[in-house]
Fold this protein.
Amino acid sequence: MEEKQGIKIGMPIVGGLLAAVVGGIVWAVIAAMTERELGLIAIVIGALTGYAVVLFSNKRIATAHKAIAVIFALIGILLGKYLTVVYFTSELFSDASMLDLVFDGEMVSAFVDTFTDYFSEPVDLLFIVLAIVSAWQIPGRMAKTSLASDASSSDHAPRA
């Protein structure tokens, strides 16, 4: 899993996972504070996973890294939606703490059963697509930028 055709993917997976978790938590915190879900956070999660994958790959990007960023962007969005549902459920039932509900089997099952309800609006799908585009494009752009800066710095190197 670590290396395929000279491409290291272990650390980029760790970076993508960390970004997805942070992004999902940020999504839920903002939703709790504003009592609204902001679709723009999905794009931020896509960008965050893209940057994390690049940073954890030492800017050596392949198509596999872009796919990793996209997968973790989707996981981050899903986690954000789930944590938001858990938060508002805990607000309805004051006897249940949010932490208890996060790991509650019934809560997970209810979320899975009503999964399509949370992504039914066209605007939800739009922001998911934009998050995917961000997660896919950022690693490629950052790799091109780093390669261009490496090439320009070698052009100005003193010659013996």
In short: Residues 122-155 form the longest helix (34 residues). The first strand starts at residue 3 and ends at 4. The beta strands are 3-4, 7-8.
